Each structure stands twice: as C-alpha cells, then as structure tokens.
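Lecture notes, unit on protein representations.

Consider one protein chain, 502 amino acids long.
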Amino acid sequence: MSFWIGQVWRGRMSMLRSKQDYLDSLKRMRPNVHKFGKRIEDVTTDPNTRRTVESHSKPFELADTEGYSDIFTTISYLTGERIMRFNSLMETGEDLIANSRLKRTMYHLTGTCTGGLCVGWNAMNVMWGVTYDMDREKGTDYHGRLESWIIGAEKRGLVVSGALTDAKGDRSRKPSQQKNRDTNLHIRERREDGLIISGCKAMICGVAASDEIFLLPGSDYGEEDKDFALACAVPRDAEGLTVVETRRPSDTRELENGFDTPVETGITQAHLLFDEVFVPTERIFMAGEHQYAGRVIDYFTANYRSCIGACVAGQGDVMIGAAAMMARTNGLPSSTFRDKLVQMEVNNETTYGLGIGAIAMGKRHTAGTWYADPLLAHTNKVHVATLPYETKRLCQEIGGGMVETGCFPSYEDLKSPEYGEKLLDMIQANPGISSETRARAARLSEWLTIGAGVPGCMHGGGSPDGAKLIIRTNTPIEEYVGYARRLAGIKEEVPEVERKKA
C-alpha cells in the first residue's frame, strides 16, 4: 500500500513530468513524421497528429488529480520513487490488473486507443524476464542494460510506443529468404559500440505522440534468421528513422470543423522505415539470440491479449452512454432499448473480466515480472475480435440513421446563413434538447463506431486466427478425454483416429 499527501509519497517529493513538459519535448524532436506526402513539423499542432498527442497527454494532466493518481502513477520497484504507471515493472497480478484499469480509463477519457501508453510498457516488462533468462543461460549482460534504461524512462516519464509487426514481405518465405530483407527489421552491421539496423515495422500505434519506440522481434526465428531476433529502444526521432503515418478512413472527417469532429482526441498508426539506424550498446536487449524470440512473443501476447479486453470494454462503456444519449435526443427514453444496452454491457464485461481472469491465473517469472495465463489470454483475444463489433452495431441500431455515414448534414451546412437555421429546425426531435446537441451526439456515435475512435479489435495485438492456434496448442484434449473416460466407466484406450490420406 502507498501513502501520500499532496505530492509527497513515502517521504519523497514527486518529480512527475507535467503535460507542458511532455508537449515541449515533442516540439523539440527532429521532424521525421510524414503524412499525405508532407513532413509534419510539429506533431503537437498539426491537425493530422495533434489529437493523438492530446490523448497521450491525459495521464500527465491528471496524475495529481484525486481519483486518477492511483491509476496513472505508482511507486517504482527499482527506485522507490513515484513514477508514471506506464513506465513501471509489473511484478504482481495487481500490477497487471492496474494496466487493464488504466486502459479502460483512457478510453473513458479519449474514446480511443493510446498505444504509446501500453505497448512499450508491455514490451519492457516482457524483456525483463527474457533478458534475465538470457543472462543466466548464455552469460550476456542484457538485463543490467534494460534496468538502466527503465530507470531512465521512469525518471523522465517517457511515452514509449512498441513495435513488433514487420512488413513481412512474401508470407510464404522466412525473413532471410525475402528478396528484400528490409521487409523485416534486422541487424545490418555489428560494431563494438552498437548495431546498425534497417528494415520496416508496420501498423504501429501512437508513434507520433511517443518519445521513444521499444522494438521487439516479430516472430519465432531459427538460426538462419538470427539477425532478425532484435530487441532495443530507439528515440522516435533517431537519425535514419522515417515515420509514415497511415491513412485512416475518417482522416478527412478529422480535419473538418465544429462538431463534425466530435472530440479533441484521436488515434494514429504508422509504418517505421529504418535506414541504417545506429543503436548504442546500452540500448540493445537482444541481438541474434533467436532461441528466445519465441519466448518474447509468448510473454508479450499473453499480457497484451489479457489487457486488451479492457480497451474494448472502455470504449464500449462510452458507446453505451452515446447510444442512451442518442435515444434521448431522438425523443425516446433510453429504457426503450434496455435489452440492447444490457447486451452491450455483457459484451464489455466479458472481455474485461476474461482478461482479469487470465491475469489472476498467471504466474510470476523468476525475474519478478508477472505474466498472464496464455490459454485464457488468447481466448480473450478471440472475443475481442468479435464482441466489440456487436456492441458497435447495437450503438448504431439504437441511434438510428442519424449516426451512419452520409445521413447527417455537415457542421458548415448547419451553420449556413442561407439554410442552416431551417435545417436545424428540421432535425430537432426532442423539443427539450437542441438540434446542435443531437448533432453532436450523432457525430460521437458515428466516430465511435465507424470513425477515428475505432480501435484495432480484429488485428490489434495480433490476429484471432493466431490466437486460436495457441488455444489449440494449449488445450489438453487427451487430459479431457481422460476425465470423460473415467466418468463413463470406460477401461479401454480411445486413441485419436489417424486422418485418411486423400
């Protein structure tokens, strides 16, 4: 238990990073983020990125606010200082549950994903266990390097995005067999003082709002692919790194005026192009130890897929509120849709609760970090790839045609001096609620269900098919057959039937 008064925790004065410090640090970075063929000079003000920056700034803004301080801050296991929670080691199940709670809270505050506050956090915790194993089994010195980097991240309150997914190239070929090796991030040159790395990481969330990027191997590798078994941390503006923000279906809507853009927060994703980027030795945590790449994936997906249930639950909470509000602006009591709202809540608590269950059934690594139960975590991922879409459908169904694309006039039309007032009169439904409120409610539901607020339910954190493969691998069919045989009183063996060849 932590005890605090004001900004003093355990007798130590808090030195947390302020929101302004965070924004100023982003302004000072080398401009290397691009979108629509143009370089973004200032990610904090450019309309293509400022909303994701605003989303990521919320914890700094609320770190000392009652009701949020325990969510966004904690005490460092390494230094005893008060730090931002997303820089912390997670040594207990409670720590990992706090990760889930932070994610759900962030969706309440922003309505969307803030990947720079979770993926890098998970990545460093994964490598805490893996570097411990490598040092003990292979005599490397990665663990001490990682500890030093984490202490630095804690002191500075860094926002760290995480990058696993490579562009991959031809899916039928291994990374070393690709015609273009740069479709996978790899070690290009080994030097006494570090590594030169090149290649591409794809579909990475929150990069524009991040101080640094934590890179992990994207798959399980063999000896021939050892140069792709790489884990390290690089500044977001590292020389030789180009960040290309991806286009989202709602990009043009995000640039519109007034309530056509319903919130001041948002999400961005990016492709990372590494062209002979130098990484100094102290920032390298795996460099060719291919035998451990699969372990990285196992630990990462277990923790990430347990906690991602909180992401979709958090946005689902907002969708319930948006649907109820839309019903009222339409002139109907929200209780008209009681059964639909209950189903939305069931969907939310299914993904959240299953994730918490995966954490509770997890175990502590010898190094100290906590890893969730993989079978439950991957089962949760399958639900995350299905239930939120039903929640979105119900939100749209309750809201009516007004919340679907193309069914509502633009802000500029509603404010037109020629016909705007007449339009506003025509779209008012509930006489006690203004037309503008109805317009804002409709835009929010639209944003949440088909716009920039939509998180990566299907493939965020990996594909559901990949999760099902791990579920299949971890399901002890023969053990279950044994239970059934005993209950049925069957004495003889009932072996698996060999498949007949076609």
